[in-house]
TrEMBL record:
Superkingdom as given in the UniProt entry: Bacteria
The protein's name in its UniProt record: Gluconate 2-dehydrogenase subunit 3 family protein
Organism encoding this protein: Caldimonas aquatica
């Protein structure tokens, strides 16, 4: 294929993703009334497991409680973002929560709630190293939101060996 053909395919794909994302987001948005939809919570739970693997407590009731707290922190953080950013994030979460978006955009065959940590991590890595800028940006947004909201909490500082701020 020639370069011009690749550019046309890339542009066509980007337009198709944008149209499909807009349609999905209007039908079932990722944020409903400023709160995460059920699908968005499932996506962010799986992404949190993938990004924070090794930082969370081992599988137990404590881990489940920590994940619920993580999703609540994410929801609170997202609520404080500017409206335009929340709208874009709502579209991204809506796309990822839909089966078609999960498979085509994230490259994840299993539903988010059933996917293993390894499957989610492989999906995130494929987004991270994608040729499509949109997929790389989605990866960065998901990773930054997840890691930032988790590691900003004093409960996570011990995992990193950070004793906390010093008293002046």
């Amino acid at each position: 294929m020639r370069r011009r053909t690749w550019l046309k395919v890339g542009l066509g794909s980007a337009i198709a993703f944008a149209v499909a994302g807009g349609m999905v987001a209007t039908v079932r948005p990722g944020l409903e009334g400023g709160r995460l939809s059920r699908g968005a919570r499932e996506v962010l739970r799986a992404v949190s497991l993938g990004v924070l693997d090794g930082s969370l407590p081992p599988a137990s009731d404590r881990r489940d409680a920590e994940l619920l707290a993580q999703i609540d922190r994410l929801e609170q953080y997202i609520g404080g973002l500017p409206p335009a950013v929340r709208a874009e994030l709502s579209q991204l979460l809506a796309i990822l929560a839909s089966p078609a978006g999960r498979v085509t955009f994230a490259g994840l065959d299993a539903p988010w709630g059933e996917a293993s940590v390894e499957q989610v991590q492989a999906s995130l890595e494929s987004m991270r190293h994608s040729r499509l800028l949109l997929r790389r940006q989605a990866y960065q947004a998901l990773r930054d939101l997840t890691a930032g909201s988790y590691f900003s909490q004093p409960i996570a500082w011990g995992v990193m060996g950070y004793p906390g701020p010093t008293d002046l």
